[in-house]
Amino acid sequence: MTEARPLFPGPLATERAYPALKRDYPADFRVDASYKASLPDLQNGPASLIVGARAAIQHVGISNFRLPIRYQTKEGGEVTLETSVTGTVSLESDRKGINMSRIMRSFYAHAEKRFSMGVLEAALQDYKSDLDSIDARIQMRLSYPMRVDSLRSGLTGWQYYDIALELAERAGQRLKIMHFDYVYSSTCPCSLELSEHARQMRGQLATPHSQRSIARISAVTQGETLWFEDMVALCRRAVATETQVMVKREDEQAFAELNAANPIFVEDAVRAFAAELLAEPRIGDFRVVASHQESLHSHDAVSVLTQGETFAQVSLDPSIFAGLRA
Fold first, then answer.
1. What's the pLDDT at 218?
2. DSSP string over 110-149
3. Rounded to 5°, angle at Cα 162 from 108 and 261
4. 312: Cβ–Cβ under 8 A, 6 or more apart, which residues?
């Protein structure tokens, strides 16, 4: 029999002894139903264990658990991409908490299937039922590769598009939302005209300023599938000066010409995107957030345009523009 050791060895020892616990990992231990039933579960404890206000929580869950997901391309191919998943549910005011691992288990049950919004809806329904929640949400973030041709040299390269797909259920109503980042070059129309004025009036060489810019489009999707490729095409129609991947001298010259043909203020940019979004029947409410990261100024030029109630807002999240860094 192992001798019990004092709680505090040496002069601080008391009559009360601390048990000698096993220190080796029990690799052969197996959990049976009885033992499992005896495990404490504080998250599902009584309301008396709630800390702080007895208030309902709109979002509680897990963020950024990653796994490979198979996506279908518009042409019928398939690509497997690392995907970051955020899953949350609502929590009523009289409930202590949730078992967060159930969200992961529910999602993993569908992870081997090729992605579709139907699969996402099934995963959401599963963990909503498992956690006995009223509202639930899933968001999947990925970087989608597409081959892009150079402007004149005939080269091709991979352009990556940051995309998030969101399925949200609130009060029995489900919304499907695509968040899409589009990176482009913006040449200042004012600077372009001032540069031309210097050339014409004084024979002075001058160059207009332009900068890498980003628009984040958040759109409620409806009806037929809106493919990632469709959103790329929509953005290119709105603002033609997408940043380039593979560039030789003739491509660089072409890009300078393309920018001169499409000078754009940040106000112009969000309205150009809005015009294309309004014309697309597969898109309902939307928000466009644009940031032109000025080469003239030490600050950025920004703009937000929303359509519909889904993205209507009075207050701006302090990080809404900080997340748009090229």
1. 97
2. TTTSPP-HHHHHHHHHHHHHHTT-S-EEEEEEEEEEEEEE
3. 160
4. 306
State the first-to-last Cα distance of the chain, in angstroms, to the nearest integer.
67
- What residues in the chain have per-residue pLDDT under 50? 1-2
Q: Which residue has the tokens 């990261």?
A: 293
Positive or negative CA dihedral for 207, 254, 260, 229? Answer: negative
Query: Which residue has tokens 């150009």?
Result: 272
Residue 219 burial (C-beta neighbours within 10 Å; 0-12, 13-18, 19+): buried
Contact between 70 and 78 under an 8 Å Cβ cutoff? The reply is yes
Residue listed under structure tokens 């908490």: 97
Residue 138 contacts residue 125 (beta carbons within 8 Å): no
Token digits of residue 153: 């040299």
Would you say 277 and 293 are in contact if contact means Cβ atoms under 8 Å apart?
Answer: no
Q: What is the pLDDT of residue 1?
A: 47
Question: Quick one: tokens of 227?
Answer: 């493919």
Nearest to 235 by CA among 290, 187, 312: 290
DSSP per-residue codes, 251-302: HHHHHHHHHHHS---HHHHHHHHHHHHHT-TTEEEEEEEEEE--SSSSS-EE
pLDDT value at residue 326: 52
Closest CA to 214 of 244, 185, 246: 185
Question: In the sheet where 301-307 sits, what is the strand order?
Answer: 57-72, 78-91, 136-149, 156-170, 173-187, 210-221, 283-292, 301-307
Rounded to 5 degrees, φ, ψ at 7 are -60, -45
8 A C-beta contact, residue 62 and residue 33: no
Give residue 12's pLDDT: 53
Give dist(CA 122, CA 75) in Å, integer. Answer: 25
Query: In the block, which residue shows the tokens 């995907």?
Result: 83
Q: Which domains does the chain have, with CATH numbers?
A: 55-134 (no CATH), 142-325 (3.10.270.10)
Of the candidates 89, 80, 231, the residue with the CA atom closest to the CA atom of residue 162: 231
